[in-house]
Structures are given as C-alpha cells and as structure tokens.
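Dear all,

This email documents one entry for the complex benchmark we are building for the journal club exercise. For each entry we list the sequence lines for every component of the assembly. Then comes the predicted three-dimensional structure of the complex as a token string, followed by one or two observations. Please use this as the template for your own entries, and keep the labels exactly as they appear.
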Amino acid sequence: MKKLFTIFLFVLLLSVTVNAAANMEITFWTHEDPNRTEIEDRYIAEFEQANPGVTIKRVTSASGKIQELVLTAFAANQGPDIFNMSIEDEYAYIVNERLAAVDFEAAGYPSLQAVYDAYVLGVLDPVTYKGKLYGLPLELTNWCIFINKKVFRDVGLDVEKDYPKTWEEMVEVSDKIAIREGEILKRRGFDFRYPYYLVAMVPMVEQLGGKLISDDGKTAIINDEAWLKFLKFMQEWGPSGRNLGSPTYTNARTLFNKDNNDIAMCTTGLYQEGRIRNENPNFYNSGEWMVVPFPVFKDAVKDVPSAYYGHYYMVNGQKPKENQQMAWKFVAYMLSHPEEYLTKVNIVQPTVELMNSETYKSMPYSDVFTNDMAKAHVVYYGENSAEIQALIREAVESVMLAGISPEDALKTLKRKVQEVLEEG
Amino acid sequence: MSRRTPSYSIERKKSRWGWIFVTPTLIFFLLFSFYPIFNAFYTSLFNKKLLSLKPPDFIGFNNYSYLLKSPDFWNSIRATLVFTLGTFAPLLIFSLIFAIFIMSRKRFQKFFQIAYYSPAVLSSVVAAVIWLLIFDPRGLGNQWLNLIMNTPGIDHKWLANSVMVQMSTMLVYFWKYVGYFTIIFIVGLASIPQSIYEAAKIDGANDWKIFWYITLPLLKPTTILVSIMSMLQCLKTFSTQYLFTQGGAPLAPINVITLNVYNTAIRDHRIGRASAMSIVLFIIMLFLTWLQFKSSRADEISY
C-alpha cells in the first residue's frame, strides 16, 4: 500500500512538472492605449496559435502608474517577463542589470548587427550598454505643436501666417486667444505638458545656451543665465505673471481632442492624431487642425526642438532562459507590424523601412515631425533621470505657483541636481 | 517557600483560552507590523537602492545624519506638523460639536449619522480625485466661494498657492474624517448614563453646566481615543498630498513625510534613506502618542 502510494505521488509530480514545461505563461505589462490593445490582442491570439502551450498575459496600467508597478514588482523579484516604459524610467533597469539582452536569434535576426541595421541610426543607442542591446523600440516620439484653426479664426488670426514660431510669439498669441473671467482662464491659447520637463523644457533651456549636465557628466545646470531666463519665462506664463496657463488646469492635450473652444494649442506627438481620430472623428476629419514645429526663443543660440524619447520593450533577466527567448520571439512578432502600429495607433516604430515608406510619408504632418526630429536629440536618460525630472518640475512649479524667485529656485535646483549626480 | 497554584485551576484554563484567542492577532502583528518595523530599521542602516542586485553597503546611521542635515526633510517635518495641527484640532472640536448636535435631535438622528459618516466610506484616493475636480480653477470651489463672497472671477488658487494648497489638503481630510470621529463621540455620549443628567437637572444645572461639568469630563476616555486616532491618522496622511501633486500642485508646501518617503523610495530608488525617514516618522508618532497619554493622565471612568 505504502509502495503504491509512493508510485502514485511520483507519477503525480512528474505530470505536474511535464505540464509546467509544456505550458509557458509570458506576462506582458504595458501602459493603457485602447488603439494598441485592439491590435495587440489580435497579435497575442495569433502568436498563441502559432506556439501551442504558450500563453501571453497582457496587463495594462495607467501611463502614470506603470513605473511604480514595474519598480515594486522588480524590487520583490517578481517583475513581468516583458514590459515597456519611457527610456528615462527604463534606463535604471539596464544599469542595474535586471534585464535580458536581446536574443537576436529568437527575435528572428541573423545577427545582432542586423538588428541595428533594421533601425534608424542612433535609436538603439539609449538601450545599448556595455556592448549589449537591451531593448527594441515600441515607439519613438517627438513633440510638435497641434493647432485648432477655428480658435485662431475666432480672434481674427490667420493660422498659416500667425502661428507662433518663437516662444515670445507663443505668449502674444496665447494672450490674444485667452478668454478670462476675472482671473479664471475660460480658454487658453497654449499650455505646456507639465509632468514632462525633460522632453520639452530642457530643450527650451538649451535654445538659450544652457545645459542640464556638462559633457563630462560631472556638473549640473550649466549656464545660469539661460536657466534664469527660462524660469522667468515660466513665472511670467503662470497665474502670478500673465496668467496664460498653469499645471493646475486640466491638461491641454486632453482638452484639445474635445474641440470645445477650451484651448487652441497643445504640444504632443504624432500619436495624438490617432487619439483625435478615435475620440472625436468629426474634428479629425474636419481639417480644422494642423501641426507646426516646436517654437524656439527669439534670441535662441541653438535651434533645439523638443527632445525625442523612446518606449522600449524589455525582457526580465530574472526569468528562465526559455521564457526570455519566448518573450523576445513575441516582442519581435508584435514589432513585425510597424505599418499597422502607424496607421491604427499612430505610433512610429523607427525602422529604416517604415521611415522610408509611403505609409509614413502620407501620414498627416509626418514631415513636420520628421524635420523637427532631424534637429532633435534624445531625451536625457540616466539612472537618476526620473529624480532629476522631478527636481526641474519642483523648480518650475515653485516659480509659477509658490512665489519663489527664479534666482532662489535656480540655486535650489543646482544644489539638488548636483547632489543627485554626486551620489550616483 | 512559595505555594504553587493547582495546575488545573479555572484561572489557568481561562488564561489558556485567552492565549488561544490572542495568538492569531499576535502572529498577525508580528508579521505585518513588527517585522516591517524591524526590517525598515535594518534597511535604514544600508545604502540600499531599490533595483540593485548588489549587496548594499553598510553605512550605520549615515542615512539619519543625512536627514538631519537635509533642508528637504526638515521641510517635510514642517509640512507634516502644520497639516497635523491644522487638521487634528478642528477634527476633534467639530466632531464633538456634530456628535452633540446629532444626539440632541429628536428626529433624523440616523439620517445625520449616515450623512456625516458617508465620506469616510470613500477611499482616500476617490475623495482626493473628487476634490481635485472641485479645486480646478474652473471648478465648483471657485464658483461656490465667489457666489458666497460676491467676488466674481477671483481664482482662489486652491492648488496653485503655497498657503491655499495646505488649506485644501486640510479641508479634504477634515471632510473625510469628521463623520468617522463624530460616530465615535456619539458612542461615547450614548454610554453616559441618563440618570446622571437627570440628577443634574433636578439639582438645577443648565445645559451649559451639564455639558461642561458632566458630559465633557465623562467623555474624557473617548476624547483621548479620538485625539490619538486623529493625530496618528493626520501624521500618516499621504494620498491627498500625492494626488494633489500629481494634479499640478507644488510639492514643497505639502511634501509631508510619507510623501517624501514614497518619492525617495519609488522615484529615487533610495530605499535605505526612505526607511530611515519612516523610522523617524514612527518615532515622532510614538513620542506624540506618549505625550498625549501623559498630558491627559487618562483615568478610568466608572459610573
């Protein structure tokens, strides 16, 4: 009886083990994007059918929340197999060696060089570390200015001629467009995307000759004069200055899609076109919107548009080797549809083939984005980029909202960013 | 020579059952309260980064000495104390007033209890989101206040001014928790025997004297309970400040210790330093609770 029971247990254990090996679950965490969900759910079904025994579990979270979820999961050594975030948030995972390098064979490439050759020059640099490649881009984005033509007409402006080319013009045009009820803004001309200071605001400082970090990476906040001018500009923009906008108003990008006479301009990427089409097809098809380049200051010493940033798919290095290979195989399968991502989600996967394709060139205003990107640089990324971004935010909001002088805000910013750099 | 009690006495049996009932709670506390506290203290002695797989460097009390020299941390202490003082005192006073008001009603007692208590049922995150909409410059906050004060077009900068944003966080917290503490006071008031009030009335005491010389002294244990609970609740405040800063409010005025702990750990990945901050907060909470107990000299009330 005892012997029989032992045999039974052995068979049971064996069947469980064999079953586990045959069935592989790949967890895939990504940010919410309804347009992507639609096509990626289909890719998952196709991939599962082509790879029996493999299940892909796709979990979405709000784009502002996923950083925290992935971080806490990795801290507990329970990270997902695949995830994607913006490179500023992902870079720490690379330098802390939490990731699996791209398995080019599993991804269907003959060599690692073939992977680099498939993408536009330089776009894989942020995910290359100590000679290894750690990510493949889901999207590469830069921002330009979206304009609602109706609002311009409403105040007697000729949008083709009067659209703001400089930040000084942006102030004047926004002031003309703004409708105020006392101190309360009922309609804004333009407003910034406040949480993303590295993408849009550091380039504004660079236009004035400033820099975030010195070339040798040892000194923070270069050229006080440029930073002061930028901080004074933001102070003037805010409620205690010319009252043109504030981080406390509903974000401009969301209002823009509604076409409710709330806002005339916002800064965002090509993907916004897909969101307008989805949320407000009438506005999308009306031809009442357009895209113009990112402005520069009148006395700019450098023509720097918004920085571009990438969302890269990454694979957890703590998962078993076979999971890593399957994960890269699945990532490559998703990324083998760049044209569908472009036409249905309006996100750009920067492959050489796509960027030269008619599909990309025929996208409304893709030339505006391409021209700006040619002059742009990648967003600042480093192990502490999220912390540095928060410190710039603190400085800008302190001058706009908390009544701190630009000089004091700069002094604090300099001290804190320098401390972050020195602590490493 | 000491005499030993018989091993099967009723007391021993009772105490054994007592231990059996208490053990699950003790295990729960050990696992989910004491272990995290000791673990946080242990972590605070290391230069530990959240994502690093390398063994962290032991740095002794360096994280604590860093905090003592950090203007940011002192600002967090200030923000926490301002918030606690600004919220805890009104919570205590108004919850008592509301409890007395409800108890004095002959009708609609239950309605008022539910009405006051309902915000406490909401999660803090939902409450903060509702108030974020109210505090939008074009939201109901400005509209109501301008209507009441006849000041059309004034932006009261609920989230866009250092002082106002602190007031706004206090207002949200007060709104959310006043009903909860009101209910506790109602329970306290209900436990005072009616015969004492009747005796006082026969002796000719008016309502004010009854409140001052009977209700308030007999409510002392409830008052101590409410004051400690509300103070600890205020010191632990997080979600309102977190969501307000996500909604564009400036960080520094409302950067309470818990928010600083969160940012240091999650945004900056410095879990060692964040642990040191949480230990400091724990010590502050422990000290203030002890101080309250000591200053109130809580005596048992028996009727």
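Observations: Chain A touches chain B at residues 64, 67-68, 71-72, 74-75, 92-93, 96-98, 180-186, 194, 238-239, 246-250, 384, 386-387, 390, 393-394, 397-398, 400-403, 416, 420 (CB under 8 Å). The two ends of chain A are 64 Å apart (CA to CA).
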